[in-house]
Write a structure and sequence with these properties.
The structure holds two protein chains of two kinds. In chain A, 79% of the residues lie in helices and 0% in strands. Chain A is mainly α. The longest helix of chain A is centred in the middle third of the chain and has 37 residues. By secondary structure, chain B is an alpha/beta fold. In chain B, 41% of the residues are buried. The chains are: A mainly alpha, B alpha/beta.
């Protein structure tokens, strides 16, 4: 059953990525097809996760590969909030290829099939993994919004005659949305890290590279919020900081997890 | 029922001629009522770019001269500038008009409202009601599915669109006007119509300190003074940026020679556009509209084809209805004749006989019905309808 649901999800995410690329060349039908690809792909992946949860009778996303699949679902869920609007289609070009590739990676790592039995309790995994992944999904979306901001800001600076040809979200809107997304995500990461630390201290376990990188990620995003709210950072500087924060998210999510989940 | 259109537009008549046949709302309504007395259905569409009379009549040979007479009565010299279109061509023209494809600026939005008002004021029946409703649908569809109406067509509208690109909604955004030229006034009016407010109108007598103070607060600066030197230096703007806490500032320089220091472009969070930039944007968006207009033409042509199919089917519908009525009459008569035999059947058996005979009639008539509708769309409909009437003796009782 999971097999039957994985392929439609991957194909639809892939279709959405290609559709958004087509929409850049000629806005219209390709963009609409891409948005439907995201919606239907999300439904297929939701069903896939539900089947996994029902079959394993618990929290089946405790391995790095399966948690990657859940992460993709959270990113696409967050994207769907804005992605259905026409002016945000370009955001899909940043989000959907990433979602398709990461879902494929999750599959290769065995994250979309039967889960291994985790040595952690379901409640701890829900709080720790669930919150951290939800926060990372929010940061990913904030980074995509910031990347779109940087691109659009550069266009406004260079003043091409085609500047108004494509309907885009306003700079101020992108800036505000990125801050709002981070403001929602940071408390989730804080709680997720706190849950992990409590368990770490209780078991007298060691800090590993992933924990250190996650704390560094928390520091960067906290700095982002503080600098924006207190020091009045906005615009390009804030967008670059968000992209730096996302680079850390990518390291935490892709480069280091093997040590942590071992 | 035939659709007849007689009219003139900016493509065929100069403004001095168009203004003499232009009709105000009351006059248009009155003329529609007068024409409908002869032609059954009439709508008058009169805007600054066109005056068009749409008539729905059984007799196009009479309706067209009546429409021409109505327009030449307003201005005899208009006759050579009149176009006369019938049926599919008339509907296609109306759909293009509603979509803004026949307008001076492709995709302009005002015309759709004018078509709606004309429809409301006209004397409509099944034909004009259908064609005008479809025209309104086409107008909305073209604007929703193509970008023909999206981009600005003037420097002032381009400035407002840029402001929206930077700030999103312009409600409560503030503008600093440096100088009050005609174009900057239009730009300011455009911004105000979207909710922005004018914080200060400065001229050569306004103190530099006051301008610098406003720079820290406003969102948009529009400059169009006749000053031969720069009015706003980059250093002044850089100083003001410190108090803006990263908020973007859009500066629009409409003056020649320029009022705003080009070095402002290099400042973080400042977006400076001069008159050349805006004119290039307008030229590009007009070209883009024309490109989108080609896509819109395809949509309009498809809708005109749909109208044609519906309109043509009107020719055969009476024949189809008569044929079905005759068949039903025969079926009922034959059942009555067989009543002596059928009387021995119980109720359920009788119902079965009724159902079987009705089914036979329906099956026999299904293909001829479909073929007649197809023939109607291919212009053979009237011939087919005549043939069916002749073969089945339809309508002979009335003769």
């Amino acid at each position: 059953m999971a097999e039957l649901l994985f392929w439609p999800a991957l194909l639809l995410y892939g279709e959405a990525a290609v559709g958004y690329l087509g929409d850049v060349r000629r806005p219209g039908r390709a963009g609409r097809a891409a948005t439907w690809g995201v919606r239907l792909g999300w439904l297929a992946q939701t069903a896939l996760l539900a089947v996994q949860a029902a079959r394993d009778n618990g929290f089946p996303w405790g391995t790095w590969a399966s948690s990657l699949s859940l992460f993709v679902w959270l990113v696409v869920s967050a994207y769907l909030i804005w992605g259905c609007r026409r002016s945000y289609r370009l955001l899909g070009l940043g989000v959907m290829p990433l979602a398709a590739v990461l879902l494929a990676v999750a599959r290769i790592g065995g994250g979309t099939g039967a889960a291994e039995v985790s040595r952690y309790s379901s409640a701890f995994l829900v709080v720790h993994v669930g919150l951290v992944l939800a926060a990372f999904a929010g940061f990913t979306l904030a980074a995509a919004l910031s990347a779109l901001y940087v691109w659009e800001e550069a266009r406004l600076k260079t003043r091409p005659a085609t500047i108004l040809r494509r309907r885009m979200p306003a700079l101020a809107t992108l800036d505000a949305l990125a801050l709002r997304t981070v403001a929602w995500s940071l408390p989730l990461l804080t709680l997720g890290i706190a849950a992990g630390l409590v368990r770490l201290i209780g078991r007298d376990a060691r800090f590993d590279a992933l924990i250190a990188a996650t704390v560094a990620t928390w520091l960067v995003w906290t700095a982002y919020v503080v600098l924006r709210v207190v020091a009045g950072w906005a615009g390009r500087r804030a967008a670059y900081l968000a992209l730096a924060g996302f680079a850390l998210v990518a390291v935490v999510r892709l480069a280091l997890p093997a040590t942590h989940f071992a | 029922m035939r659709l007849v259109l007689v009219g003139t537009s900016h493509h065929h008549a100069p403004v001095e001629l168009r203004e003499r046949v232009a009709l105000k709302r009351d006059a248009a309504q009155e003329l529609a009522a007068r024409l409908a007395a002869d032609s059954e259905e009439a709508i008058v569409l009169s805007t600054c770019n066109r005056t068009e009379l749409y008539l729905g009549s059984e007799d196009a040979e009479r309706a067209e001269p009546a429409a021409v007479a109505a327009l030449t009565a307003l201005e005899p010299e208009v006759e050579p500038a009149l176009y006369r279109l019938h049926d599919r061509a008339a509907a296609h023209h109306l759909f293009r008009v509603a979509a803004g494809l026949d307008s001076l600026v492709p995709g302009e939005g005002e015309i759709l409202g004018q078509v709606r008002v004309a429809h409301e004021l006209g004397v409509t029946g099944p034909l004009l009601d259908r064609v005008f409703r479809q025209a309104l649908h086409v107008g909305r569809k073209v604007r929703a599915e193509t970008a023909v109406a999206e981009s600005p067509t003037s420097v002032s509208a381009a400035a407002a669109a840029l402001a929206e690109q930077v700030f999103g909604g312009l409600a409560a955004r503030s503008i600093l006007l440096l100088g009050a030229g005609k174009v900057s006034e239009q730009a300011a009016r455009n911004l105000r119509s979207r909710g922005a407010e004018i914080a200060l109108v400065a001229d050569s007598r306004t103190a530099r300190d006051a301008i610098a103070h406003q720079l820290a607060a406003v969102d948009v600066v529009i400059a169009s003074t006749s000053s031969p030197a720069l009015v706003l230096e980059a250093a002044t703007v850089a100083e003001a940026l410190r108090g803006r806490r990263g908020r973007p500032l859009l500066l629009v320089d409409l003056a020649v020679p320029r009022d705003l220091d080009p070095a402002i472009r290099d400042l973080d969070g400042c977006y400076l556009y001069d008159i050349d930039d805006l004119e290039a944007i307008v030229a590009e968006t007009l070209a883009g509209r024309r490109l989108e207009a080609q896509r819109a033409e395809t949509l309009v042509a498809a809708e005109a084809e749909k109208f044609h199919e519906w309109h043509a089917s009107l020719d055969v519908v009476p024949a189809i209805a008569s044929l079905r009525a005759r068949a039903e009459e025969i079926r009922a008569a034959e059942l009555r004749k067989a009543d002596a035999l059928l009387g021995r059947l119980d109720e359920s058996q009788r119902r079965a006989v009724e159902a079987v005979t009705a089914q036979i009639v329906n099956k026999l008539l299904h293909l001829p019905t479909v073929r007649m509708k197809q023939a109607a769309a291919a212009a053979d409909g009237v011939l087919y309808a005549e043939a069916v009437r002749h073969l089945f003796g339809l309508g002979e009782d009335q003769r």
